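Run Diacylglycerol kinase (ATP) through structure prediction, thanks.
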Amino acid sequence: MRRRLTSSFGYAFEGIKYVLKTQPNMKIHSVIGLFAILAGFFFKLSEAEWLAIVIVIGFVLILEVVNTAVETLVDLYTEEYHHLAKVSKDTAAGAVLLMAIVSVVVGLIIFLPKIWDMIAPLIFK
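Sure, done. The structure for Diacylglycerol kinase (ATP) is below.
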């Protein structure tokens, strides 16, 4: 039982490592997520703000992993063009894009007022 659990975690980490190594968008999302976390420390986010940031970063990264799984599975199934294969890949990529847009909106809602509070005194001396 313990060995199976350890193996499961190992396979999961291999999957994450594969996505990080092979998918440029995963690298981009990870860097932007890290930047948001650093900005969160800089601006001393509230507990609720942290929760929102962590959730949206998590969802973007999770969807990128799922998107890679869908694309890989479709590629395994067929190398020929098929309309439904395209639809499958496009909708999985669309899910990532939608979540990335949502995460940007959440980031703007949280960070813009803090940035404004920091620069407004410099502008309106």
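Residues 43 and 114 are 7 Å apart (CA to CA).
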